[in-house]
Design brief:
- With 204 residues, this protein is α/β, with parallel strands linked by helices.
- It has two domains: 6-54, Helicase, Ruva Protein, domain 3 (Orthogonal Bundle), CATH 1.10.8; 72-199, Dna Topoisomerase Vi A Subunit, Chain: A, domain 2.
- It is 41% helix and 13% strand.
- It has eight helices and seven strands.
- The protein has helices at 6-15, 23-33, 38-54, 71-74, 89-98, 126-133, 148-161, 187-195, and strands spanning 56-57, 64-65, 79-86, 103-107, 139-142, 168-171, 198-199.
- The protein has a five-stranded mixed β-sheet. Strands 1-2 form a two-stranded antiparallel sheet.
- Strand 3 (79-86), helix 5 (89-98) and strand 4 form a beta-alpha-beta unit.
- Helix 5 (89-98) packs across helix 8 (187-195).
- The radius of gyration is 20 Å and the shape is elongated.
- The protein starts with 5 loop residues before the first helix and ends in a 5-residue tail after the last strand.
- The mean pLDDT is 89.
Length: 204
């Protein structure tokens, strides 16, 4: 379909780069924006500029934040001896929504997936091992999605951290459905899985 405006076509092309957004959906979103008042479009554009300019990644856990350290890592009310290892920032938000966890996090930025060309070196695994090696860590919770890739990543991390015999390694109780991404799990189930977490077994 020919688009009668170069500017419209460019905007549709940019929206189409977002995950889950096809050409038709992108067109519908852009045409909707055209109906907005100019001040609202400007506010929308400004929020994207501010996002790219100001949002950073915590130098400790790799969660998103506005400064060098995220509010969770900076909090004196959190249990810094317990680290919950998650795949993504969405998982942090999902677990926080349960209000059942009071430790800190470590965001890997993905999981090991040879099919997608993602190996251990592409993830924040070594920085996790470094945190454990610095001491003052009592428990590592492997809160990765119960998929083949998630289990592979958990086993890899287990082997790296098992050398530190004074650190307990646990995983979520299997209330989370097999092959379900963690951040899609309902809050009640996820919260119970955290509270009822169990020792990680290298050969379940």
């Amino acid at each position: 379909m020919d688009i009668p405006s170069h500017f419209l076509e460019r905007a549709v092309g940019q929206f189409s780069q977002l995950p889950g957004i096809g050409h038709k959906t992108a067109m519908r979103l852009v045409l909707h924006l055209l109906k907005w008042e100019r001040k609202d479009v400007d506010a929308f554009a400004d929020s994207l500029h501010e996002l790219a300019e100001n949002v950073r990644y915590c130098k400790v856990c790799h969660n998103v934040c506005d400064g060098e350290i995220c509010p969770i890592c900076a909090s004196t009310k959190r249990d810094h001896a317990t680290i919950c290892v998650v795949e993504s920032i969405q998982d942090v938000m999902a677990i926080e929504a349960t209000q059942q966890y009071h430790g800190v996090y470590h965001v890997l930025g993905g999981i090991i997936s040879p099919m997608d060309g993602i190996g251990p070196q592409d993830l924040e695994i070594e920085s996790l091992v470094k945190r454990v090696g610095e001491g003052d860590v009592n428990e590592i919770i492997l809160a990765l999605s119960p998929t083949m890739e998630g289990d592979t990543t958990s086993f890899y991390i287990f082997r790296k951290i098992a050398l530190y015999t004074d650190v307990t390694i646990t995983t979520l109780a299997r209330g989370v459905a097999q092959n379900e991404q963690l951040h899609y799990t309902d809050e009640l189930t996820l919260g119970r899985s955290i509270v009822e977490r169990r020792a990680f077994k290298s050969n379940p």
